[in-house]
Amino acid sequence: MAVFAAIFLFNMLLMSGEVAGKELDGHQFYPTPKVIENYKSRRRVLTSTQNETRIAFVNNILRAFIQRDAQERVLVFAKGKNVENMIIMDSVDGNLSTIFKVRAFIEVLPVLLRNTPIYRKFKNSEIPPFFDLAKMNGFKTVTFTDGDKYSFRFILK
Description:
Low-confidence stretches: 13-24
Strand content: 15-25%
Order of helices and strands: HEEEHEEHHHEE
Radius of gyration: 15 Å
Largest sheet: 5 strands, mixed
Number of helices: 5
Helix content: 25-40%
Number of strands: 7
Strand order of the largest sheet: 3-7-6-5-4
Mean pLDDT: 79
Shape: globular
C-alpha cells in the first residue's frame, strides 16, 4: 500500500504540470519516438471526462499491476497541460523493447486489467480494446518506452 501511495503522489506531482517552475514534457521521460502510429478509436470521449478521471484511470492501471505482482513490470503516468498524454514505461529491460512486444502487450492489457473499476462496467463480450478505453477517458496519446533507448507513440483519434 505504501508503494501505491508513493506512486500516486509521484503521479500527482507529474500531473501538476510544473516542477520547480519548469513545464514537464515527455522527453524528460523517454527518447524521441521511433514509431508514431495513429489509432482510430471506435469510441468517443465521455462527456464527464476531466483531469481527475484520467488520473484515476492511470492509477487504476498501476494498482492492477502492483496488486497482481505482474511479470510485466511497468510504470504508468500521465502528463501534459490537461493530463491527456499517457506514458507506460517498462521497468524490466526488454519486456517492451520492440514494437511487436508493445503491440502484444496492448492486446493483453484488457485481460490483465479486467478487475479494475473501468473494465468491471463491461460484460466480458463487450470489453473494448485498451486504446478505446484510453480515448473514452480523454487521452490523446499513449507512449510506450524503456526510458532509455526506445519509445513508441500511438495517437488516439
